[in-house]
Amino acid sequence: MNITEKCTGCMACYNSCPFNAIEIVQNKKGFYEPKIIKEKCKDCKKCVSVCPQNNPISKNKFKEIYAAWSKDKDIRINSTSGGIFSELANIVLN
Fold first, then answer.
1. Quick one: DSSP state of residue 58?
2. Dihedral sign for Cα atoms in the order 52, 55, 60, 64
3. Whole-angstrom Cα distance, residue 82 to residue 78?
4. Measured between alpha carbons, how far is 70 from 57 in angstroms, rounded to an integer?
5. Closest listed residue to residue 52, CA positions, set 21, 9, 93
6. In Å, how far from its chain's centre is CA 4?
7. What is the Cα–Cα distance from 1 to 44, expressed in whole angstroms?
8. How many whole angstroms separate alpha carbon 22 and alpha carbon 9?
9. From CA 39, how far away is CA 33, in angstroms rounded?
10. Tens-place pLDDT, residues 18-55
11. Alpha helices per DSSP H over the chain
């Protein structure tokens, strides 16, 4: 498989290359994709490490989730955040 076959054109590789060894070119289908300039490339692999296609987010990681809301029913009902913003703002202001 061609390395650019899964490329989404996000340009993360281009923006991360410390040697300016990547140029963005338009392919035959009109999409932009990276092209490595071999003479400039130092094979540091930084472009590979930042690529979201080479490093997809793991879906098996458990995330911590927190929920909070105001105990005051009037604040909670009249708020889009469940009143948590009002409660936090009161703490900061006090």
1. P
2. negative
3. 8
4. 34
5. 9
6. 19
7. 21
8. 13
9. 18
10. 999 999 999 888 888 999 999 999 999 999 889 988 88
11. 12-16, 46-50, 73-77, 84-93
Distance CA 69, CA 85 (A): 8
Widest Cα–Cα separation across the chain? 67
pLDDT level of residue 3 (50, 70, 90 thresholds): low
Token representation of residue 37? 């300039």
Residue 36: CB atoms within 10 A of its CB come to: 16
Token couple for 26: 């338009």
- pTM of full prediction above 0.70: no
Secondary structure class of 25 (helix, strand, coil): strand
Strands 22-26 and 32-36: antiparallel
d(CA 17, CA 43): 10
Phi-psi category of 28—alpha, beta or left, where left has phi over 0 and alpha has psi -120 to 50?
alpha
